[in-house]
Amino acid sequence: MLDSLMKSQHRQSLKQPMRSIKPRRLKLLRTPLFRLLAINLAMGTALAVFLVGGLLWINPGGLRHLIFTDRSPGVALGLLLFGFIVTFGSTAMGSAIMAMGQREGEDDEPRWPWGLMRQATLERVWPHSNNKQSV
Length: 135
Prior knowledge:
Layout: H1 2-15, H2 27-30, H3 32-58, H4 63-68, H5 73-98, H6 113-125
Helix pairs in contact: 3-5
């Protein structure tokens, strides 16, 4: 009896037209701030992987030898990589957040170190000059 009931329900479900299933995109992907953070986290992660690979390639102080002669080199490598990802990922995300409000234009003061040094030198030489030097 149960078997026949299940078969009839299955037949009825086949007769109904299939509903169109709309793919749901995460609302987070539509948020510009989340995308900014995700992109910068990916850049920080790529930099971390690159630097850990460089450290293993250069082998300072026998680091590669220490990691790969351990009983579980995956744990040591994972911990090293995790620390680098946290450091560089958060640095990239933080710098992206802090740079959001800055706009570079013609009237902005120079942001590069040599421009700031040039401006400081000009202020020392001509302290009463209010003219801004363009870089």
